[in-house]
Specification:
Residues 1-25 are annotated as: Disordered. It comes from Lupinus angustifolius. Residues 1-11 have a biased composition (Polar residues). Keywords: Pyridoxal phosphate. There is one protein chain. This protein folds into two domains: 80-312, Type I PLP-dependent aspartate aminotransferase-like (Major domain) (Aspartate Aminotransferase, domain 2), CATH 3.40.640.10; 322-442, Aspartate Aminotransferase, domain 1 (Alpha-Beta Complex). The protein is globular, with a radius of gyration of 23 Å. It is α/β, with parallel strands linked by helices. Helix 3 (56-71) packs antiparallel against helix 4 (73-96) and helix 5 runs parallel beside helix 6. It starts with a strand and ends in a 10-residue tail after the last helix. The strands form four sheets. A seven-stranded mixed sheet has the order 4-10-9-8-7-5-6, with helices on both faces. It has a three-stranded antiparallel sheet with strand order 11-14-13. The chain contains 15 helices and 14 strands. A hairpin with a 2-residue loop joins strand 1 (2-4) and strand 2 (7-9).
């Protein structure tokens, strides 16, 4: 029994530490049979990056929290909820090396965190702290929902948006740094100020690890007011130290790579001046008491996903090296599997191995005829429905003058439940399509 400030919470019994590598199936089979037996066994699930995964022990802990709430809601609200969320925030504070727990707020997901930061930018325009035409810089490969938030909050408030045109495939951090500097120059070219830079730590599609420390340093040198790092994939996937990164705001989901159920994320806000105007977009009774307190109560709802962070930490600590060991093994395995696939198909990776975390972009055979985003989505559906393979497909428009270019890339993920057979299944499915003379034009609308 685990105790949260005196209230007993039942978890599954602690199990011996496990180790995992892509070449060793003994411990992975233990995990598959116990913690991830609820996964559909007919699917090669190599898309952890989209929705993450939650082990059975954490699901059990979540259900216990839900039952404790339903048993006596008033007691739960007055005596349990705030303490439990504070414990989760404290764990996150240590995971990301924040200065103080007050810098950590728990929200539903990274999209909610983006709304909080961008809403604050919108108020700065409306209240005259920013001038019409002042600039927000974002990466061209920013997540679609974040782009929509920038449109909803910044553009409507009178801000100008400059996109950083990133190359893909990418060969080095220097390419990204150069394009970022060019975007900042464009932003300042008309005498306007760059008020906010929105930088991904791991872009979603195509997936590349961005040199955020370098970009934050450049922002400071160039007088950018604030930096927001959208790191939806970071916790459990790549190294995170918010002090070293130095951004004003940093967010990551815990349901993608840290084994929590959906949905839970944190927003780190570096100590802001007293009276700063950051607020949760859902206004409730705690409005004005600070973002962390506001976020901890936005009305009657299920808060269990925010309360199971201790159970998720307990789960990862069963593995050799904890979350650091999991990250390293996932990275090594996804690189190994990516290199196996491109060798089988005669293609190439979308980035060097040191620019990926637990996901990597794998070029698909050009003969598949992926010529649009629609083709990419149809091929993804075809692989799911006919081959039992779940993997996102990215379309890269050909550049002028390219002959027979690779225009389709698969984003493969690796998590502790994956086995080599998942990637062989994907390899064989694509080989079968190629051997059969398949092209995307054969797929119906």
């Amino acid at each position: 029994m685990a105790s949260i400030n005196g209230d007993s919470i039942s978890h599954t019994p602690k199990k011996p530490k496990l180790s995992f590598s892509s070449s060793s199936s003994s411990s992975s089979s233990i995990i598959a049979q116990t913690e991830f037996s609820h996964h559909d066994p007919s699917i090669a699930r190599i898309n952890n990056g989209s929705f993450g995964c939650c082990p059975a022990s954490v699901i059990a802990a979540q259900q216990q929290w839900q039952l404790n709430y339903l048993r006596q809601p008033d007691h739960f609200y007055f005596n349990v909820l705030k303490k439990g969320i504070l414990q989760s925030r404290t764990i996150i504070k240590h995971l990301v090396n924040a200065e103080h727990v007050d810098e950590i707020s728990i929200v539903d997901n990274a999209t909610t965190a983006a709304a909080i930061v961008l809403q604050n930018a919108a108020w700065s325009f409306h209240e005259g702290r920013f001038s019409k035409g002042d600039v927000v810089v974002m990466l061209h490969y920013a997540y679609g929902a974040v782009k929509k938030s920038i449109e909803a909050y910044v553009t409507r408030a009178g801000g100008k948006v400059i996109e950083v045109n990133l190359p893909f495939p990418v060969t080095s951090d220097d390419e990204i740094v150069s394009e970022f500097k060019n975007a900042l120059e464009r932003g300042k070219s008309d005498g306007n100020r760059v008020r906010l830079a929105v930088i991904d730590h791991v872009t979603s599609m195509p997936s590349v690890v961005i040199p955020v420390k370098d970009l934050v340093r450049i922002c400071r040198e160039e007088g950018v007011d604030q930096v927001f790092v959208d790191a939806a994939h970071s916790i459990g996937c790549i190294d995170v130290d918010v002090k070293e990164i130095g951004a004003d705001f940093y967010t990551s989901n815990l349901h993608k790579w840290f084994f929590c159920p959906p949905s839970v994320a944190f927003l780190y806000c570096r100590k802001m001046p007293k009276g700063s105007n950051l607020h949760h977009p859902v206004v409730s009774h705690e409005y004005g008491n600070g973002l962390a307190v506001e976020s901890a109560w936005i009305g009657t709802r299920d808060y269990s996903a925010q309360l199971v962070v201790p159970a998720a930490l307990e789960f990862v600590n069963r593995f050799e090296g904890g979350i650091e060991g999991i990250k390293k093994r996932n990275h090594d395995a996804v690189v190994e599997m990516g290199e196996m696939l491109v060798k089988a198909w005669g293609t190439h990776l979308g980035s060097p191995p040191d620019m990926c975390g637990s996901m990597i972009m794998v070029g698909l055979p050009a003969c598949l005829g992926i010529s649009s985003d629609v083709d990419a989505l149809k091929l993804r559906t075809h692989l799911r429905d006919h081959f039992g393979v779940e993997v996102p497909i990215y379309y890269r428009p050909p550049r002028d003058g390219e002959v027979g270019p690779i225009t389709g890339y698969a984003r493969i993920s690796h998590q502790v439940y994956n086995t080599v057979s998942d990637y062989y299944k994907f390899r064989d499915a694509v080989n079968q399509l190629v051997d059969n003379g398949f092209t995307c034009t054969l797929l119906s609308e």
